[in-house]
Amino acid sequence: MAETTSIASLSNRAMEFVRTGPGMPAGRYLRQFWQPVYHSVDLAAGRAVKIRIMSQDFTLYRGQSGQPHLVDARCPHRGTQLSSGWIEGDDLRCFYHGWKFAADGSCIEQPAEENAFCSKVSIASYPVREYLGFIFAFLGTGKAPELPRHPEFEHFDGMVEIDSYSRDCNYFQNLENALDMSHIGFVHADNAAVFKGVGLGRLLDAEESNWGVTYGFTRADGQRRVQQFGMPNIFYLTALPTDADVGWQESMFWWVPLDDHRHMQFSLHRVPAQGKVAERLHGRRQARRGEIEVAHQDLARDVLEGRASLRDVDKKKVDLVRLQDDVAQVGQGLIAERDGEHLGRGDIGVIAIRRLWTRELGAFLKGRPTKKWQRDAAIGPRAWGLAGNPARIGGQGMGTTKAAEVIDVRPHVEIAVQLKALHAAVDK
Ligand code: FES
Ligand SMILES: [Fe+2]
User: Which fold, 35-134?
Assistant: First the structure.
């Protein structure tokens, strides 16, 4: 990786990564990549919603055919929200005066106009695809690239769990947190005074890969933990299993800005559970969804504003890990102030992604070629402490041709919070 950028200038450059509205440098760059924008299960046929992605509003709807469509938020006639209208087949009719738009954005009816001028008006329409339980959209200009696929999550002997959440701070804080193992011993340790050495700076490494950054930690006994960051906003890691019935678990995350102060983490976990094991796991996950009554986002605010303490939290009623990360990341501010930072060896992962982003964003803005990021099967995560080996392409556990079942395990309270965040109006 080029070492020409000083750490001080990386702090300044990092501030360019955080603004992702239309026309902003990072917003234009991120829009060159397919992004998950919604969960398939949350959008029934015949329903339209207004969503906000990267400080831009859209209408997302599912036609009667079952196909999802993404178009502008407002009607070009007199600007009301198109999500309040009617879905007719795969077309969308405005609630106010009934103008009707086809899924490609063309206007096809203007009921009050004897001399209709449909050909003079249209709305923008964006490519969408459903994949692994998410609705992905391409919000950039020009022809959409192929949607990147992740075959490990498509066909294997197990199931895929959806466990996304929203967080009330800039997306880049969460992205940096992923390549920061030194936080684990404090943020996620009940006894914060004990640092067991996972994330000790000199044992960390971060190297550029064909997909982004390979981030590793080598224990004194030579055991390695390896996590993969994918440009511009994806992460692939081996998590320690969260259930005694499964020996390993792999997760993939996309951090998608809603605006500059809020983001979604779209999360997938693949777990090797089938048959009776899957049934038991499914039962426990369903029970846990209902048990969580407190939104971690609300409790984090209470902690940060002095009304509650992390020490008194009832772990049964809240997702503790998410709450802990909320407190650390939202605690940095809605947009972390990076000018006053003092980075050390333990921040090697943060420095690595800032370097890549700086280089790529710089090239993109100058119209120079940017790197074509690609993940092949060799770019995968690993960790110690697993029982059995994660299924790998061409190896054991990938034999099935049946698509892995995708199951929603988001707590009910989480779904309510994240839909509110996704549907909210852009702050003006
Ligand atoms: S505002 Fe949509 S038809 Fe008038
Ligand atoms: Fe964390």
Answer: Rieske Iron-sulfur Protein (2.102.10)
Ligand 2 geometric centre to CA of 158 (Å): 26
Ligand 1 pocket, 97 CB below 6 A? yes
Residue ranges in the chain modelled with pLDDT below 50: 1-3, 427-428
Residue with tokens 């951090």: 255
Question: Ligand 1, atom 3: nearest CA belongs to which residue?
Answer: 97
What's the predicted TM-score (pTM) here?
0.96
* Residue boundaries of the structural domains of the chain: 35-134, 150-367+378-423
pLDDT at position 308 is 96
For the chain, the distance separating the N- and C-terminal CA atoms, rounded to the nearest angstrom, is 40
Span 55-99, pLDDT tens digits: 999 999 999 999 999 999 999 999 999 999 999 999 999 999 999
Return the closest-CA partner of residue 404 out of 229, 216, 153: 153
Rounded CA separation 32/364 (Å): 10
Q: Which two tokens stand for residue 197?
A: 């050495």
- What kind of architecture, by CATH, is found in domain 150-367+378-423? Alpha-Beta Complex (3.90)
Residue 80 alpha carbon, nearest atom of ligand 1? 1
Residue 41 has a pLDDT of: 98
Q: Tell me which residue has tokens 């009301």.
A: 80
pLDDT of residue 425: 67
Task: For ligand 1, say whether the CB of 75 is within 6 Å of any of its atoms.
Answer: yes
Give the pairing type, strands 405-408 and 159-162: parallel
SS3 11: helix
Cα 340 to the chain's mean position, in Å? 28
Ligand 2 is an ion; residues with CB less than 5 A from it: 325
Could you tell which of 80, 92, 93, 100 is best to mutate to test the pocket of ligand 1, judged by most ligand atoms within 8 Å of the CB? 80
CB 330 within 8 A of CB 300: yes
